[in-house]
Write a structure and sequence with these properties.
This protein is an alpha/beta fold. It is built from ten helices and eight strands. The chain has an eight-stranded parallel β-barrel with strand order 1-2-3-4-5-6-7-8, surrounded by five helices. Bound molecules: 2-phosphoglycolic acid (PGA).
Length: 256
C-alpha cells in the first residue's frame, strides 16, 4: 500500500523569506506525521526549501515546469533545473494554468515526459468545469484529460504520477465536491487507467482530491474509498491550519 500524501500548492503568494518563516513553524508540526507531506512553491523559493528541509522527510517541488528540454525559451525553467535543486514534486496541468495560460493536454504530456527524464514525480491535475458537470460530461472530460496527458507513457512510469482530482468549480471557491462526487471521480479515473494499462497498476497511482479542503471539512473526506490524500491551496499558506488538516486526515486529531 502506498503512503497517504498531502501536498500544499502555495501558488504565487509567499516571498522566499515568508516561505522560510512558514517552514520554521510548519516542519516541527508535521515532521513525525504518518503520511507523506509535500509543498510546491514558486521557483524563487525552492532553494529555501532545500535548505530548510534538509533534515526533514517533507517533500518539496515546483508548481510548473517547461515542456521543453533546454535552450532559447526565455523565462522557462526546465525539469533538469528542478531536479538539480532537489525537487521531488512538480504540479502539472493545474486548472489555473489551463485557464489563464491556455495550457493544453499535449503540453502537459510533454511536461510529464520531461519530469520522468529527471525522476520527478508529476502531480497531474484534472477536473471538470461547472458547465461540464451540468452537461453530464464529467466522465468524458476526465477520461480525455487522462488519455491525452498520459499519452505515450509506459506502465512502469505511472509510479511517478500522482493524479489530483480538482473540480474547477471547487478551487478557491469554498465550495467542495461531495464525498459521493469524489468517489465517482476516483472510480472514473481508476477505470480509465486500468483500461489503458492494466488493473495491477491502479494501486500504484495515488489519487488526491483538491478544492477548498480545510480543517473544518477534511473529516468528510476521510472515509472516501480509494482517496489517497489532498492537494491543498489556500490553507497551505497557514502552517497551523495546514498541519491541523494533515493531522485530522491521518489520525483524526487536530492539534499535535
Ligand atoms: P484551494 O486550491 O484549496 O484554495 O481550493 C486547491 C488548488 O488549487 O490546488
Amino acid at each position: 500500500m502506498l503512503n497517504k500524501l498531502v501536498v500544499g500548492n502555495q501558488k504565487m503568494n509567499l516571498t522566499a523569506n515568508q516561505t522560510r518563516k512558514f517552514l520554521n513553524s510548519f516542519v516541527p508540526l508535521v515532521d513525525l506525521v504518518n503520511c507523506d507531506v509535500g509543498i510546491c512553491v514558486p521557483y524563487t523559493n525552492i532553494n529555501v526549501c532545500k535548505k530548510a528541509l534538509k533534515e526533514s522527510k517533507i517533500l518539496y517541488g515546483a508548481q510548473n515546469v517547461s515542456e521543453f528540454e533546454k535552450g532559447a525559451y526565455t523565462g522557462e525553467v526546465n525539469a533538469q533545473m528542478l531536479a538539480d535543486v532537489g525537487c521531488q514534486l512538480v504540479i502539472v496541468g493545474h486548472s489555473e494554468r489551463r485557464k489563464m495560460f491556455s495550457e493544453q493536454n499535449s503540453q502537459i504530456n510533454n511536461k510529464i515526459k520531461q519530469n520522468l527524464k529527471y525522476n520527478l514525480t508529476s502531480i497531474l491535475c484534472i477536473g471538470e468545469s461547472k458547465r461540464d458537470r451540468t452537461a453530464g460530461q464529467t466522465d468524458k472530460v476526465l477520461c480525455k484529460q487522462i488519455d491525452e496527458c498520459l499519452s505515450g507513457l509506459y506502465e512502469n512510469e505511472l509510479e511517478k504520477i500522482v493524479i489530483a482530482y480538482e473540480p474547477v468549480w471547487a478551487i478557491g471557491t469554498g465550495q467542495t465536491a461531495t464525498a459521493k462526487q469524489i468517489e465517482e471521480a476516483i472510480s472514473i479515473i481508476k477505470n480509465e487507467i486500468s483500461r489503458i494499462y492494466s488493473k495491477s497498476i491502479i494501486d500504484k497511482v495515488r489519487i488526491l482530491y483538491g478544492g477548498s479542503v480545510k480543517p473544518e471539512n477534511v473529516r468528510e473526506f476521510v472515509k472516501i474509498k480509494n482517496l489517497d490524500g489532498f492537494l491543498v491551496g489556500g490553507v497551505s499558506l497557514d502552517a497551523s491550519a495546514f498541519s491541523e488538516l494533515i493531522h485530522l486526515f491521518v489520525d483524526g486529531k487536530g492539534k499535535k
